[in-house]
Amino acid sequence: MDMSTSPLGLIAPRSDADWLNAHWMPFTGNRDFKSAPRWITEAKGAYYGTPDGRKIFDGLSGLWCTGLGHARSEIVQAVSRQVAQLDYAPAFQFGHPLSFELAHRITGHMPAGLNRVFFTGSGSEAADTSLKMARAYWRTKGQASKTRLIGRLKGYHGVNYGGISVGGIAANRKLYGQGVEADHLSHTQPPNGSFFHGMPPAEGVGKYAGAALADELLDLITLHDASNIAAVIVEPFSGSAGVVIPPQGYLQRLREICTAHNILLIFDEVITGFGRCGAWTGAEAFGVTPDILNFAKQITNGVQPLGGVVVRQDIYDTFMAQGGPDYMLEFPHGYTYSAHPVACAAGLATLDLLERENSVQQVRELVPHFERAVHGLRNAAHVLDIRNYGLAAGLTIASAPGEPAKRPYEIAMAMFQKGYYVRYGGDTIQLAPPFISTPAEIDSLVSALGDTLQATA
Q1: Which phi-psi region, left, alpha or beta, contains residue 372 (left: φ > 0; alpha: ψ -120 to 50)?
Q2: 230-241 burial string, b = 16+ CB within 10 Å, else e?
Q3: Can you tell me the mean pLDDT for 217-240?
Q4: Non-local CB neighbours of 214 within 8 Å, separated by 6+ positions
Q5: Using one digit for the tens of pLDDT, what is the confidence trace for 164-177?
Q6: Helix (H, G, I), strand (E, B), or coil: what is residue 154?
Q7: Around Cβ 24, how many Cβ atoms within 10 Å?
């Protein structure tokens, strides 16, 4: 990408206080950013561009969502055509053909039995939709006491009230007080210094063994009784907490317990869906089928907001059977932008590319190189542990005295100055390069991160 010829690259954004302060930025240290803004003004392929013409390698695929690279002409054209033909259609009581086509295409890549798609506008909306579905399902079946929801420490399920209630990241919960009734399983992150490649072994380390961790669900069933538990929600692997991978056998055991005790199992695949795992879904990659599966992010390659929930046939049928007269609402829930026609056009174009370019295989072929590269940082300064699966890796960074989040922030900012975008969160640095990355680009990213770690106090 030649920034010198780009009209956007020549634009100098305003940086005066009046201009900057109008926007309250999400998940951002606003005071820090507005004291020295870090602008991104364009993107192409695996790179972002800045106003001064610098190229920035996109080491997190946007926010885990642009695996195909940026500004893909096929998606751009599909979106442009759709805006001109049907820019918006009412989401309630009327339909447009693209949403039905996209739903069919999505179910073709889901595990067997997951075949009914409810569209939302984001991953956070998908999480709350799945939780409402779970509760409503049991009420519709005459088991109204099944309301409790079970998440997991270090889990991330978006930022709406249901999502932060089942989520297990303290920083996302502490400001907001009591959410919905929920309990939490332990996380599956092994002790620092484990440096497992891919999935930890079934025997794990100490209590971090697959079956033992999953069996904590039996303790929660003893405490609350299965008659009061609606669903368990987990990510196949956790992204936002620093790429936390389940031990072998863990998800299988959760599935067994949920089935035995009549509890719905929800997989939040907002990050793991549509290629990141080297499979179409995390469910496929790990060999476990949930009752409900949430998706977002990669479904449109980040071009348009879109999310959704895929459920088993019998869950859908339960709502239809108890819906009353045909004109009544079976599930009184949805959003103005559910199945937005422009987002659906982006989703169809994205699936076309994922299929035509065999992106799942592309990821599988790149994973061994990526794994070797990131674990080459094992002895780098401040690195306490490294975890990886598919095209995702998390590094735990030793805390600066009294400031556990400072070093990851400093590392990420230094990387941006060097021409690499990585994510920092809590005590971790996170990597999730685009599916289209070359081995040389992976090596360059990891080498720069190693140099930055060594140079960080």
Answers
A1: alpha
A2: bbbbbbbbbbbb
A3: 97
A4: 185, 249, 250, 251, 253, 254, 257
A5: 999 999 999 999 99
A6: coil
A7: 7
Of 330, 344, 343, 322, which is closest to residue 92 (Cα–Cα)? 330
How many other CB atoms are found less than 10 A from the CB of residue 170?
10
Identity at 370, one-letter amino acid code: F
Helix (H) or strand (E) holding 64: helix 61-64
pLDDT value at residue 263: 98
C-alpha dihedral (310, 314, 315, 318), degrees to nearest 10: 150
Report yes or no: 278 and 360 within 8 Å, Cβ to Cβ: yes
Kindly report the pTM of this predicted structure: 0.96
How far are the Cα atoms of 119, 126, 390, 457 from residue 352, in angstroms, in the given order? Answer: 19, 23, 21, 46
Q: Are 374 and 446 in contact (CB under 8 A)?
A: yes
Q: What is the pLDDT of residues 187-228, one digit of tens each?
A: 999 999 999 999 999 887 777 788 889 999 999 999 999 999
Considering Cα of 125, then 131, then 133, then 139, what sign does the dihedral take? negative
Residue 60 near residue 422 (C-beta atoms within 8 A): yes
Q: How far apart are CA 276 and CA 297, in angstroms?
A: 11
Of 48, 45, 71, 59, nearest to 349 by C-alpha is 71
Crossing angle of helices 341-356 and 359-375, rounded to 10°: 80
What is the distance of C-alpha 429 from the center of its chain?
Answer: 16
Indicate the burial class of 127 (C-beta count within 10 angstroms; 0-12, 13-18, 19 or more). Answer: buried
- Alpha helices, H only, 167-299: 210-214, 216-224, 250-260, 282-286
Q: Which two tokens stand for residue 367?
A: 């994973």
| Helix and strand element counts for the chain (H, E) | 16, 15
Return the number of other C-beta atoms located less than 10 Å from residue 16's C-beta.
Answer: 7
DSSP assignment of 73-129, as one string?
HHHHHHHHHHHHH-S---SSS---HHHHHHHHHHHTTSPTTEEEEEEESSHHHHHHH
Query: Quick one: which of 68, 51, 37 has its CA closest to 7?
Result: 51
Residue type, 45: G
Backbone angles phi, psi at 15, to 5 degrees: -135, 15
384 burial type by CB count under 10 A (0-12 exposed, 13-18 middle, 19+ buried):
middle
Distance set, CA 60 to CA 42, 87, 437 (Å): 16, 30, 11
Question: Tens of pLDDT along 81-99?
Answer: 999 999 999 999 999 999 9
